[in-house]
Amino acid sequence: MRAVEISQYGSSDVLKAVTRPSLVEPAVGSGEVLIRVRAAGINRPDVLQRQGFYPVPPGASDLPGLEIAGEIVGGDLSHSDNFFSLGVGHRVCALVAGGAYAEYCIAPLAQCLPVPRGLSDVEAASLPETFFTVWSNVFDRARLGLDGRGPETLLVHGGSSGIGVAAIQIATALGHDVIVTVGDAVKAKACLDLGAVLAINYKEQDFVEAVKSHTEGVGANVILDMVAGSYLNRGINCLADDGRIVIIAHQGGKSSEIDVGQVLRRRLTITGSTLRARPVEFKGAIARALRAYVWPLIESGKIKPVIHEIFPLEAAGQAHALMESSQHIGKIVLTIDEI
């Protein structure tokens, strides 16, 4: 099978197109399926893995890539149920722990979702990593709008990223206000067009002042933070009482100095998570929640995949270079066609 592997840690040109032995059914374990991959999403963790900063979990493929779309060609389907009703030949998208940059990939059946009606493989491949991440952190961990709170305000740093466009659309579709930070006017307009109520250019405005002004001094109830570093204490300063910050990356640095007094006085919560190494059962629960609450919104057109650019598998290095430039809006996807 054709695949792209990391030949050594380094810049985007270390991604090399190779031919590997095809995966076959005997290699598929209990509760897993073999998928003929048609498209694979590019994500920031792929870049970190290529650079040597994101180790592969035990047992996962050494090939990069965390999300795929294609069709099931075999495997253990004994755990399929009426909720998903997946079988051989069915089109699915799936979250995987690695191995997406290849013609075939093994995925836990619990982490597979049917391709939403009307979506192409490219569009479906853009969903799993970002949608699983947003649901797990914004709703399961930060409890946006849950526990009797009603509509709340969500602040997303990096609103035009794949995570950002997913968070904007999901939260907006579920009745919440979303504020985003972005780096230029083009990205600001894109986020507003997706439903954000305010897009703050962090190069020109203080996002703390902008959030406080927009919310009439109340602040944001939840912050989805991909930056950390100095942003963490600034986030505390524009968080509402009983607010929650959930950290999913630290592009601004691992160390932060915070005002603990505010955390105590205003009952604030600071949490965070990574998804790749979590058990299948945990990810399967997220998949079921997405199928129940988010997939109907996609199929009704209230949430739409946002694809910035599509590359062939062998151009994965170019796709990584684009992601590192941060010039994209939405998702970057690889196509994996038979030749």
What does this structure look like?
- This protein has 339 residues and is α/β, with parallel strands linked by helices.
- Helices cover 29% and strands 26% of the residues.
- It is built from eleven helices and 15 strands.
- The chain has helices at residues 44-51, 121-125, 128-141, 162-173, 185-194, 207-214, 231-237, 260-265, 280-293, 295-299, 316-325, and strands at residues 2-6, 15-19, 32-42, 67-75, 91-95, 104-108, 112-114, 153-157, 177-182, 198-201, 220-225, 239-247, 269-272, 307-312, 331-335.
- The strands form three sheets. Strands 3, 4, 5, 6, 7, 14 and 15 form a seven-stranded mixed β-sheet that branches.
- Helix 3 crosses helix 4 and helix 3 crosses helix 9.
- The longest helix is centred in the middle third of the chain and has 14 residues, at 128-141.
- The chain starts with a strand and ends with a strand.
- The model has no long low-confidence stretch (mean pLDDT 95).
